[in-house]
């Protein structure tokens, strides 16, 4: 396979902010974009180590995020604690199938799929895989875009707490699971931002 | 020095020579398919400014008025977005309160004010104070502005509440809908490359 003309091989650096391509300075000195002044890197620094660190933290917090209640409702009939899944079940049994599916997708499927995908991406780069590079790059693009939608349940809790806090018939309070869940979303977003998809393509170049 | 005719794919690092695109066209990486750049009309940043200004006004309306009201047995409650953040804070859910404030108020506001400021000063042929750090800041916080996710969250919570109370959608609910559309339109219209080139010549 012929050597692909990449910026790195041509001794060029691309600015991630203003996208200007400029010549790399001599090795050992810090590079700054001549146009916008942003710090330049050939690849995101310590990409794999940072991705794994954020990812592992997210996986650990995923447990309390799903087992602890995100919301406590107290009414005349007693106190009820809701986890993410019981909230989905409530929507489903009350007949809102579309919304139940939507919340299930955004709160359960997206974070889970995102963590698995990030592990696959980081793992495959570490195992120097040269297969399905285009598909893996596309996978990265999708998780970078979709991760934000997991914040949905946090906003649902916010509105419910605000509206049903001081009324006479019931009161809703945020549970400890909400903070854990928010942390999972933030950590997976950091993990995705730390991963450098260009690493997927670097391996082929070294071996070809 | 720099070679402005080249563009590198940010997802696979392949170098491409920049070419003139037809109206509405976009250039994608030949190796991984990532978006490289879009055709931008000459008045792209004029349009972006108009859209950003509109979004600024909508942002104010969306934050001043209540998002939704609730009526149960004659008792009426309503809340603005900031009021909702305050309830979370008072409810000892401080981490969540900060997260909601940051993603739905601080980031969208900073992004809109920053973009408007840079575009207004560029339009007058001047280099606005702090234009470069502002553009850097906008770029780094972009993924954290979540107005559209928030709006969907409001709709889900309304469905949940509809079982136990009468819902009165507030002015801010509709303003948030419009705000979401205008933020997306302003971001799509904004041509950062033209802005950077212009900032370079003013220096």
Write the layout of secondary structure elements.
The complex is a heterodimer of chains A (208) and B (203).
Chain A: E1 12-14, E2 21-23, E3 31-32, E4 39-40, H1 47-67, E5 71-75, E6 78-82, H2 84-93, H3 97-126, H4 133-146, H5 152-163, E7 170-174, H6 176-194, H7 198-207
Antiparallel strand pairs in A: 1-2, 3-4, 5-6, 5-7
Helix pairs in contact in A: 1-3, 1-6, 2-3, 3-4, 3-6
Chain B: E1 6-8, E2 15-17, E3 26-28, E4 35-38, H1 44-64, E5 68-72, E6 75-79, H2 81-90, H3 94-123, H4 131-141, H5 147-161, E7 166-169, H6 171-189, H7 192-202
Notes on the protein architecture:
- The complex is a heterodimer of chains A (208) and B (203).
- Chain A is 56% helix and 12% strand.
- Chain A is of the alpha+beta class and 208 residues long.
- Chain A folds into two domains: 1-42, no CATH class; 45-207, Butyryl-CoA Dehydrogenase, subunit A, domain 3 (Up-down Bundle).
- Chain B folds into two domains: 1-39, no CATH class; 41-202, no CATH class.
- In chain B, the strands form three sheets. Chain B has a three-stranded antiparallel β-sheet with strand order 6-5-7.
- In chain B, helix 2 (81-90) packs antiparallel against helix 3, helix 3 (94-123) packs across helix 4 and helix 5 (147-161) runs antiparallel to helix 6 (171-189).
- The two termini of chain B are 17 Å apart.
- At the A-B interface, strand 2, helix 3, helix 4, helix 5 and strand 7 of A face strand 1, strand 5, strand 6, helix 2 and helix 3 of B.
Q: In a few lines, what is going on in this structure?
A:
Chain A has helices at residues 47-67, 84-93, 97-126, 133-146, 152-163, 176-194, 198-207; strands at residues 12-14, 21-23, 31-32, 39-40, 71-75, 78-82, 170-174.
Structural class of chain A: alpha+beta
CATH topology descriptor of the largest domain in chain A: Butyryl-CoA Dehydrogenase, subunit A, domain 3
DSSP summary, beta strand count of chain A = 7
- Terminus-to-terminus distance of chain B: 17 Å
Strand content of chain B: 5-15%
Order of helices and strands of chain A: EEEEHEEHHHHEHH
Can you tell me the CATH architecture of the largest domain in chain A?
Up-down Bundle
């Amino acid at each position: 396979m012929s050597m692909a003309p990449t910026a790195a091989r041509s001794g060029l650096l691309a600015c991630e902010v203003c996208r200007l391509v400029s010549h790399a300075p001599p090795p050992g000195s810090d590079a700054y974009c001549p146009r916008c002044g942003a710090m330049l890197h050939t690849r995101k620094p310590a990409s794999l180590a940072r991705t794994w660190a954020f990812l592992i933290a997210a996986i650990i917090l995923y447990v309390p995020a799903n087992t602890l209640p995100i919301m406590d409702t107290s009414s005349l009939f007693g106190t009820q604690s809701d986890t993410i899944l019981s909230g989905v079940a409530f929507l489903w049994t009350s007949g809102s199938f579309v919304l139940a599916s939507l919340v299930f997708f955004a709160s359960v499927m997206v974070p889970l799929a995102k963590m698995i995908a990030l592990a696959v991406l980081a793992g495959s780069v570490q195992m120097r895989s040269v297969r399905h590079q285009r598909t893996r790059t596309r996978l990265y693009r999708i998780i970078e875009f979709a991760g934000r939608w997991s914040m949905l349940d946090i906003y649902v809790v916010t509105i419910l707490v605000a509206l049903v806090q001081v009324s006479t018939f019931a009161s809703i309070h945020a549970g400890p699971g909400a903070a854990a869940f928010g942390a999972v979303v933030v950590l997976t977003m950091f993990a995705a931002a730390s991963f450098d998809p260009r690493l997927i393509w670097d391996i082929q170049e070294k071996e070809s | 020095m720099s070679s402005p005719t080249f563009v590198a794919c940010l997802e696979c690092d392949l170098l491409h020579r920049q070419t003139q695109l037809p109206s509405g066209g976009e250039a994608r990486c030949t190796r991984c398919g990532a978006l490289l750049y879009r055709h931008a009309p000459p008045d792209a940043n004029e349009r972006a400014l108009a859209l950003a200004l509109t979004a600024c006004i909508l942002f104010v309306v969306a934050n001043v008025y209540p998002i939704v009201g609730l009526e149960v047995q004659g008792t009426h409650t309503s809340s603005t977005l900031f009021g909702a953040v305050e309830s979370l804070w008072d409810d000892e859910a401080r981490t969540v309160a900060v997260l909601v404030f940051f993603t739905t108020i601080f980031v969208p506001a900073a992004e809109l004010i920053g973009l408007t400021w840079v575009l207004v000063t560029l339009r007058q042929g001047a280099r606005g104070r702090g234009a470069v750090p502002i553009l850097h800041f906008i770029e780094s916080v972009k993924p954290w502005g979540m107005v559209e996710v928030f709006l969907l969250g409001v709709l889900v919570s309304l469905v949940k509440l509809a079982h136990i109370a009468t819902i009165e959608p507030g002015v801010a609910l509709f303003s948030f809908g419009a705000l979401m559309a205008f933020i997306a339109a302003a971001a799509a219209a904004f041509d950062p490359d033209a802005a950077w080139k212009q900032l370079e010549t003013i220096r």
